[in-house]
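Study this one:
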Amino acid sequence: MRSFIFIISVLFSTVAMAQEPKEFLVISYNVENFLCPTVWRDSTLPTPSAFERVAISQFQQKAQAISASLRAYAQWDAIGIIGLCEVDDRRALNELVYRTPLSHTKWSILHRDSPDHRGIDVALLYQRELLHFRNCRWVGVRSEYDTLVYPTREMLYASFRVGKSDTIHFVLCHWPSKLSAATSERRIVHAAAYQLQNVLDSVRKCDIAAKIVVMGDMNTTPDDVIFQSFASPVLDSARLQGKLINLAQCTQLPYRRYPTYQYNGDWQTIDMFFLSPAICEGTGCCLQADAKERLPAFLFEPDLEYGGQRPKRTYYGFRFREGYSDHLPVSILLRYQ
C-alpha cells in the first residue's frame, strides 16, 4: 500500500513539475548600423559612402559585440524573441545567428530587404523550440490617401503559438526620426502610425482579445501625441477604448523603465513596448515583473563632453570603434504555461 501511495505521489509531483510556468524574454534592440563588409556588396550598386565602408574584421567584431550584449543582458533567462533594428541584410543576420555564441540556441530569422534609402531593415529572431511560427507580413509605410510607399523601414508583423494554445502577435517597428512638425519626416511618422493601426484592427477583427506586442525604435519619446491614437498609459482607458498600453508611461504595471538613447548629453526613452490589455491581465502567456538590473556595465563609457555615462557606440562620425550600439536594449518578460 505504501508503494502504491508513493507511486501516486511521484506521478502527481511529475505532473506538477510539467505544468510549472516557464518564462522567456522579448528583447528589442537597435544595434546601430550592423552593416555587411563593402567587399560583399553588389558591384553594380553605387560606390558606398565612407560611412558604409566596413572591413570584414569590423563586421565580425560587431556581430560578436551584439551577441555579447544580448547574452549578458539576458543573464540566465531564456530569450524567446529578439527584435533588431538597423541590420543590413540576411548575411549579417546569418553571421550573428550561426557564427557567434548565439548559435548555441536554435534561432529562426524573419527578414527581408526594405525600401529604406539607407539600406537598413528590421529583423525578428525567434527561438523555434519556444515559439511556433504561424504567419508574418511586412507592412510598408504609406499615408491613408497615397499608394506610394515611403523609402523607409517596413514594419514586421508576425504571430506565434506559445505554450499549449496561446497566440501572440508581434509588430516590430523602426519609425523615422521626428525632427519637427513641419518636416516630411513627421508626415512619414503619421503614415507609420496609420499603418500600425491597420495592423491592429486586422488582428482584433479576428480576435478582439488578442495578445499583441508592439516594440522597436519609435524615434520619439513616450509622451508624443502620435501614440494617443492607438495607446494609453492607463490600463482602464486602454481596455475601454480598445487601445494598447503605453508601457513606458504606465505606472500600474511592474516594468523597469530607463532611457535608451543619448543625444548631446540628453537621455531619452525612444525604444519601447506597447502591449494589449489581454497580455497584461490575462491568463496563459502574460507579462511578468522584470525588476532585474539587466544592463551590463560594458555597454557604457564615460561621457567626457557632457559628464556621466553614455552608450558605448560603434561609430563616432565615420570612425569605427569597438563599441556595441548607440541604443540600449529593452525587454519584457513573458510567462507561459
In short: The radius of gyration is 21 Å. Residues 184-206 form the longest helix (23 residues). The chain has a mean pLDDT of 87. Helices lie at 2-18, 56-74, 90-98, 184-206, 235-241, 277-281.
